[in-house]
Amino acid sequence: SSAFRLALIQLQVSSIKSDNLTRACGLVRKAAAQGAKIVSLPECFNSPYGTNYFPEYAEKIPGESTQKLSEVAKECSIYLIGAKGSIPEEDSGKLYNTCAVFGPDGALLVKHRKLHLFDIDVPGKITFQESKTLSPGDSFSTFETPYCRVGLGICYDIRFAELAQVYAQRGCQLLVYPGAFNLTTGPAHWELLQRGRAVDNQVYVATASPARDDKASYVAWGHSTVVNPWGEVLAKAGTEETIVYSDIDLKKVTEIRQQIPIFNQKRSDLYAVEAKKP
């Protein structure tokens, strides 16, 4: 089928891991009951976002959090994206900001380790160094559904147009980025980047953010969003805990690519974006 319902869970994340997990699973069940077939949780849904929190909340994959996600995906018969930092993941002494995807049978389909670490310095506004505690991943992450192939990124990954281009080359029609932008970059770039990736690649783009908590050490922007291949915002949350639904019709991708056939018009004699890894 070329049509399906997508749901983004804009979870209010607390410092109590078990509470986050329980509430996340409850909202996933609610989304599935509303007909959602692909559901995404936000970045760092089981841990507050911050370099000091990552080591404390990290776990193996498979582990406690992913076991719960696998169970709820199977119970609801959905594709579940346990998003960005969905889990700070520990592996061989290294920590990764990792997003795990589970299929309707509960199987782990793919594990995306954030490729681009969030190291920025905007004087007087925000300084953050993910690389202090995290290591970057080194592989592309896509998974198949009966609807389309889906490409994954985590938060800062969305700034890198080449990643989205590689996913489009590989036949992805939906890109999902669990993310937690902040009050400096959020208002400036959050929607702009999503619309840019969508229009450049003529794909659907979805972002799942945590809800805003003004008392947190890192205040997330919120505004989980779905954008279509024409660059239109189909659905967008406010700042509070909520579920964003969007009915995706992949015929739109085909239609827009026929109307504006940029993929056949690229000048490969002049430039190329190429993947260096499978």
TrEMBL record:
Ranges for domain CN hydrolase: 4-250
GO CC annotation: mitochondrion
EC number: 3.5.1.3
InterPro entries: C-N_Hydrolase (IPR003010), C-N_Hydrolase_sf (IPR036526), Nit1/2_C-N_Hydrolase (IPR045254)
Sorted UniProt keywords: Hydrolase
GO molecular function per UniProt: omega-amidase activity
Gene Ontology biological process terms from the UniProt entry: asparagine metabolic process; glutamine metabolic process; oxaloacetate metabolic process
Coiled coil residues, start to end: none
Pfam families documented for this protein: CN_hydrolase
Reaction equations catalysed: 2-oxoglutaramate + H2O = 2-oxoglutarate + NH4(+); 2-oxosuccinamate + H2O = oxaloacetate + NH4(+)
Similarity annotation: Belongs to the carbon-nitrogen hydrolase superfamily. NIT1/NIT2 family.
Protein's name according to its UniProt entry: Omega-amidase NIT2
Organism: Myotis lucifugus (Little brown bat)
Name of the encoding gene: LOC102432553
